[in-house]
Amino acid sequence: MGLTGIQIFKLLPKTNCGECGVPTCLAFAMNLAAGKAELDKCPYVSEEAKEKLAAESAPPIRPLTIGTGEYAVKVGGETVLFRHEKTFVNPPGLAALVTTEEDEASVNGKMERFKACQYDRVGMKLRAEMFAVKDASGDAAKFAALAKKVSDGTGAALILISEDVGALKEAAAGLADKKPLLCAATATNADAMGELAKEVACPLAVKGDGTLESVIALTEKLTSMGLKDLVIDTGSRELKKVFEEQIQMRRAALKDRFRPLGFPTLIMANEMASDLMEESLVAATFIAKYGGLIVLSDFQAHSLFPLFLDRLNIYTDPQRPMTAEQGIYPINNPDENSPVLVTCNFSLTYFIVSGEIESSRVPSWLCVQDTEGLSVMTAWAAGKFSGETVGTFLNKCGIKDKVKHKTVIIPGYAAGISGELEEELPGWTVTVGPREASQIPRFLKAMKG
Amino acid sequence: MAFQPSKQTYSGQIRQVTLGVGDKAVTVGGKAAYPFHGFEGTMGNPPKIAMEVWDKDPGDEWSAIAKEPFKEVLGDPAAWAQKCVRDYGAEIIVVQTKSADPNSDNKPAAEVAEVVKKVVDAVDVPVVVWGVGNHEKDVEVMRILAEKGSGKRLAISPVEEGDYKQIGAACLGYKHLVVASSPIDVNLAKQLNILLGNLGVATSDIIIDPTTGGLGYGLEYSYSVMERIMQAALTQEDEKLQQPMICNVGNEVWKSKEANLSSEEAPELGDSSKRGVLMEAITAVDLLLAGADIVVMRHPEAVKLVKGFIQKMM
Question: Is the whole-model pTM more than 0.80?
Answer without folding.
Answer: yes
